[in-house]
Amino acid sequence: MKTINCYTVSGSKSSLELPNLLKEKVNFGLLAQAWRVYEWKRHKELSKVKTRGEVSLSTAKIWRQKGTGRARHGSRSAPIFVGGGVAHGPKGVRRILSVSKKMAKKALLHSLSYKADKNQIFVVSGLSKIFKTKDAERLVEIIKSKENIKNRSSFCLVIKRENSGLERAFRNLENFKVLFLENLNAMDVLSSDYLIFEKGAFAVLSGKEKSLDKKEKEKEKVEIEDKKKNLYKIGKKKVIKSSKLKNKSALKRVSRKRSSK
Questions:
Q1: Across residues 93-106, what is the average pLDDT?
Q2: Angle of helix 101-117 versus helix 28-42 axis, rounded to 10
Q3: Residues near 181 by Cβ (< 8 Å), separated by ≥ 6?
Q4: pTM above 0.70, yes or no
Q5: Can you spell out the DSSP letters for the chain?
Q6: What is the chain's mean pLDDT, rounded?
Q7: Residue pLDDT, tens place only, 113-131
Q8: HSE of 16 in the Cβ direction (CA atoms, 13 Å)?
């Protein structure tokens, strides 16, 4: 049975069973494709150069074709002249590279499986007790000493969005970045040497606990359904009332006709 090392804030060590989601066989082709897409998205590709048709120069022929002893040339905007246009330069057009949601999710799970197989994932419980950078640094040093990790290794802390206050304590540490669970992708996992999961975030990832976004969505669905039911009841009452009023008006008309006769 594959396990992950779990730590408390005080530094005591225990083991946690690895969920089945992180036991998949790693597809390196998928990881390479996802990496290329994420890397491309980080690059803006805004550079652009002017071609010979866009340079602000005269288009007149610089000298006659024959009789000068020089090489034949057209205008000064040709790429071989200083100040002329650039041949085959960047056009400033962004290419569209994308990966589907299903592939992105699969790539994330495969990258986490790869890290778990190398024992580069840790879980920490009770992180909400940490408020100062000094306490965060002490915890990281304990993990480094117990796992024999080099000082220059990079870390990525994964937390739930409702515990966003942890970012203040950890963000000033060297070679350390803090990410919310919903923002984590395969590139973040692979570019960090080690991953530290908050216990609540790891529970959400393994499917044992629902994230705050999912809970809110479920609440919204229930509220919408309740509103629909209430509107239906109100509408039904209105229909019944209107039908009763119609019946009353009809009876009055009949009674008036009889009285006139």
A1: 88
A2: 110
A3: 158, 159, 160, 161, 201, 204, 205, 211
A4: no
A5: --EEEEEETT--EEEEEPPGGGGSPP-HHHHHHHHHHHHHHH-----B---TTTSSS--S-SS-SSSSSSPP---TTSTTSTTS--TT--B---------HHHHHHHHHHHHHHHHHTT-EEEEE-GGG--SHHHHHHHHHHHHHHHT--TT--EEEEE-GGGTTHHHHHTTSTTEEEEEGGG--HHHHHHSSEEEEEHHHHHHHTTSS--HHHHHHHHHHHHHHHHHHHHHHHHHHHHHHHHHHHHHHHHHHHHHHHHH-
A6: 84
A7: 999 999 899 999 888 888 8
A8: 23
Cβ-proximal residues to 25 (8 Å cutoff; 6+ apart), any chain? 113
pLDDT in tens, 9-29: 888 888 888 888 888 899 999
The string over 213-230, giving b where at least 16 C-beta atoms fall within 10 Å of a residue's C-beta and e elsewhere, is eeeeeeeeeeeeeeeeee
Whether the per-residue pLDDT at 236 is higher than 60: the answer is: no
Residues in the chain: 261
- Read off the amino acid at residue 5: N
